[in-house]
Structure formats: structure tokens, C-alpha cells
């Protein structure tokens, strides 16, 4: 009996693959990652067009506005007047992780974000888990933010005596059937990303400037009605309430790592990525705390319970001028659009990186020669996110996103520690201050916030991980390019990885 040649080849490849335990621990050399940066399925590279301004605006655009514009009405009842403390706690946790991201982004300037960092330090198994968490973080957070668009669209239409019925502006569970505004915003972002990353970045920069402007305008109006008595008692729900709100509003900070997904489209990633990440964290945290203080000062904390589009309501009640609420509502819709645009961008780049490693289907790694963007991957992700945004309630989405994000952030902190101990000779354009205290505290803070999330969120997260494990064994393990290397080739590749050019083609 003659065995077909292709069958013999597959049999030989399977025999050459490492065992499960060895494969899960196989790390992808940093030099290999850098040498592959810009490559894609079909050979068309991504276009390097981003400077520090665009990278910072990607990070700010993906972050600023989520907690303030969408979930403030849900988080204030948890913490009371101390909601600003919750934002500080969440911001501190994010900052501890942000400095680790800054070091890793300068060291491994590729599109995979924390997925790539985990692959370089903890091996394929942990990299897959991290990548699967990032799918949850990015794709689901886009949907979660877009869900809030219906509230602000109605606030805008109200100025003209019009409104969308709840069946079309709210998700199921909140009185709606399908959230049409949420789906429309995701589809528009998808179309813009397909056209080109550079054009998307400039449009995002313009929207971010508008977004910062409307939030500062809100603060100016709210402080005109400031009542210090609204802050007493400061902790009506106790420290537990503040912690619970901090875990929830941490969702508001997830966007800063979006800049790290642009590593292969930055002109000078080693210099500009760390700067963009740190600058965006300063901008976002300052504005969040300022807006939270202004909002509580203008209205007692009990007023926020069940209030939708809280900031617009405050403006309308304080000024009595419908046009002011109209301007803010329209700006809020743009703000949500910028979050959707930048986070959806990050998701497509992470999947491109995972596709390059053979962990997800090749279609996510195909880059269009005409636009220089992963068109097919963007269309697939955008369609899936649009359907999720239209059909799934906000609360479950936000909490599920938080836990996936916290897990990924913890892994980045661990990655910094690993490389400092095992690869101290690597040149770092940014170094985490107060090492090893900072990454250790970052890991512990992420674990603390994860522990404060509800049991239902943990159940959803566990289910998500089980699906991820099934997909890994069904596809990723069999198609991994690093695992396909023989033990000898893998060792040679790891040894020569500090000089990426000679090994560029070995995983292609």
C-alpha cells in the first residue's frame, strides 16, 4: 500500500512536533518577532505612518469617555460620592500596568500587544490564553461602548422633538429588541478602518480633540452648580462599595494598550510607543477624576441611580438650555465613535499577529495591497461586533471585558519581571521605575480587582476560557508555526534570535 506524499509529510510534521507540555512552554524569540514585524499573509506589509501624536490619540481615543459617558450611572450607586476615589484606584492599577506596557512596547514593538509579550516570556500556552483574553477585551469592549450610543442619539434627537423607540435604541434586557445606533456606529468604524489606517488615525485625532473639549465644557458648567454637601457622607456604601466600583470602572482604562497594537505602523516604535502610553494615561486619569468630582458636586449621588446619559441630564438641568444638551449629546456620540474606531483597530492588529503565528486562521493576516489594512479580518471582526452590540446588554459586556483585561495586564507585569531576570542585556527604550516593586504591585492590584468582580462575571470568564481551550486544541496547536519547528531548529533559532535578519524566513 502506497502512502500519499502529502500524508507522509503531515505524519512527519506531527512526529516532529513537541509534546503538549513542551509546546505550551515554547517561547517565540523576540528577534524573530521583530524580524517578522510588518509582514503578513501574502507578503503585503502594514504601512508605518504614525508619529507620537497619532499613537497618543489612538490610546486616548480608545480610553477617554467610556466610564464617564456610558457607565457613570451604574458605578456611582456602588461607591456614592467616593466614585472619584474609585477612578483613582482603577487609574493607579492601570498606571502600574501601563509602565510595564511601556517597557514591553519599546522592547517588542510589534502588533500583538500583550499576546506577543506573553509568547516571548511565558510560552505558547500562556500566549494563547492572553490572546483569547484580548479578543474578549477588545471586541467585547467595542460592543459594550457602542451599546451606550442609543442613549445619546435620543438625547440629540430630543432637541428636535424626535426620538428612537426603545425597541430600536436599547439592547435586549433593557427594553429593546435591537440597538440600531450601536450597530451603525460599529459598521461606520469598520468601513473607515478598511479604507486605511492613516486616514482613520487623523479622523480619530480630530474626534479626540472634540471629546476633550466637551468634557471640559461639562466641568465648567457643572462646577457653576457645585455643592460641597453632595460629598457627605463620602462612603455611604463603605470601602467595599468603592472597591466594587473601582473594579467596574477599570473598564474605562482598557484603551491605553491600544497604542501598543500599532507597533508595526509606528514610524519610530521604540521611542514613540512608551511616550504615547504614558502621556495618554496622564491625560485620561486627570479628566476622569475632574469630571467625576464635577458631576457629584452638581448632583447628589442618589440622583444617578437609574439615570441614563447622566452628564447630558446635568447640563440640561443646570443651564435649562436645550441647545447645550444637544451639543454635548452630539459630541458624546462622536466620542463613543472614536472609542469604537480605535479599539476595533486594535482587535484587528492582534488577530493579524496571532494569524502570523498560525494560532488563528490565515484570513485574519491578509493585508490588502491597495489599502495596506487587513480588510478581510476587519470585515469579519466588525460584523461580529456589530451583531453583539445590537443584541447583548451593556452590564454583562462591561464586567466580562474588565476581567479579561485585568488578566492580560497581570501577564504583562510578569513579562517585565521575566525579561529583566533572563534577558538583562536587551536594550530598553523605557524602563519601569522602582523595579521590581512596580510590576509586582501591578500584578497584585490586577488580582485584587479581579477578586472584586461578581460571581456571574467569573462564570462568564470561565466559560470563555473553556471555549478558548477548545479552539486551541482544535486549531492553534495543530497550526502553530513555532511548534512546527524541530527541537534542533528551535534551539538554533532561539540562539540566533538576537540577529533577526538571518532567521526571517524560517517560520514563514
From TrEMBL:
<feature type="transmembrane region" description="Helical">
    <location>
        <begin position="432"/>
        <end position="451"/>
    </location>
</feature>
<feature type="transmembrane region" description="Helical">
    <location>
        <begin position="50"/>
        <end position="71"/>
    </location>
</feature>
<feature type="transmembrane region" description="Helical">
    <location>
        <begin position="323"/>
        <end position="346"/>
    </location>
</feature>
<feature type="transmembrane region" description="Helical">
    <location>
        <begin position="457"/>
        <end position="475"/>
    </location>
</feature>
<dbReference type="GO" id="GO:0016020">
    <property type="term" value="C:membrane"/>
</dbReference>
<dbReference type="Pfam" id="PF13520">
    <property type="entry name" value="AA_permease_2"/>
</dbReference>
<keyword id="KW-0472">Membrane</keyword>
<feature type="transmembrane region" description="Helical">
    <location>
        <begin position="375"/>
        <end position="396"/>
    </location>
</feature>
<dbReference type="InterPro" id="IPR002293">
    <property type="entry name" value="AA/rel_permease1"/>
</dbReference>
<feature type="transmembrane region" description="Helical">
    <location>
        <begin position="125"/>
        <end position="147"/>
    </location>
</feature>
<feature type="transmembrane region" description="Helical">
    <location>
        <begin position="277"/>
        <end position="298"/>
    </location>
</feature>
<protein>
    <submittedName>
        <fullName>Amino acid permease</fullName>
    </submittedName>
</protein>
<feature type="transmembrane region" description="Helical">
    <location>
        <begin position="83"/>
        <end position="104"/>
    </location>
</feature>
<keyword id="KW-0812">Transmembrane</keyword>
<feature type="transmembrane region" description="Helical">
    <location>
        <begin position="176"/>
        <end position="194"/>
    </location>
</feature>
<dbReference type="GO" id="GO:0015171">
    <property type="term" value="F:amino acid transmembrane transporter activity"/>
</dbReference>
<keyword id="KW-1133">Transmembrane helix</keyword>
<feature type="transmembrane region" description="Helical">
    <location>
        <begin position="402"/>
        <end position="420"/>
    </location>
</feature>
<feature type="transmembrane region" description="Helical">
    <location>
        <begin position="234"/>
        <end position="256"/>
    </location>
</feature>
<feature type="transmembrane region" description="Helical">
    <location>
        <begin position="206"/>
        <end position="228"/>
    </location>
</feature>
